[in-house]
Amino acid sequence: MELKTIKEFTPDEVAQFSGENGKPAYIVHQGRVFDVSNSKLWKGGLHMRRHHAGKDLTTDFQAAPHGEEVLARYPQVGVLRREAIDERKIPKIIVWLITKFPMLRRHPHPMTVHFPIAFAFAATMFNILYLATGVKAFEVTALHCVGGGILFTPVAIVTGLYTWWLNYLARPVKAVIIKQRISVILLALQVIVFIWRVKVPHILASLNTGSAIYFALVLSLLPLVTIIGWYGAKLTFPIEKE
Question: Which class does domain 3-86 fall in?
Fold first, then answer.
């Protein structure tokens, strides 16, 4: 059968074949659509507890322990519509960069997002150490960590938007939307905490209403980065449904 006679799919049409609830499991690789429903490794539309059917897995194959030759085991049921592949109109410089440096397609955000998470945890822990020991150096270090968070949170947000646009076509993905909203709140709180601490250097020196509110804001950084990390992990390593 000639390739031009094979059915053409849009990304939304492929997404309907997720392998869930008895549906066939289709995946896309380099514009070709394959039916992997009969594979035990794609039971329920989930492969290795990470890769979901109904999606374009071209990039994922670059990190797979096997080559694309495994696709020869499964029937090709169609191709991705040409317009769907080009609909993002990716600038040529971006195409060149991700071709030259494949890590730029997947890794900038997972790499940079760890910095604001680490700084938020460190800021909280060093403040707790200060309250427990009275050693001023711990409190000063906490301030530096908040400053580091302010520097790196925008970087994580920008790389996150880039990854969302490049790999998810900027479509409304629940986990991504939650991460975006929480990240904005995180950045705002970091700025508030930093400015407050700079203006009132001895804010935690005595217990009062102001210091209690300040410390509560510092503590709130922990659940915020935990939520961001949790939903980020769900995107990278989806939880297998029972």
Answer: alpha beta
Look at residue 241 in the predicted model and tell me its pLDDT: 46
- So where are the chain's domains? 3-86, 101-236
- What SS3 state is found at 56? strand
Q: What are phi and psi of 114, to 5 degrees?
A: -70, -25
pLDDT, tens only, 188-239: 999 999 999 999 999 999 999 999 999 999 999 999 999 999 988 877 666 5
Residue 115 vs residues 22, 57, 84, 128, 197: alpha-carbon distances, Å: 41, 28, 35, 20, 21
CA distance between the termini of the chain: 39
Percentage of residues of the chain with pLDDT beyond 70:
77
The overall average pLDDT reported for the chain is 83
CA distances from 11 to 16, 24, 83, 207, 220 (A): 9, 15, 10, 57, 39
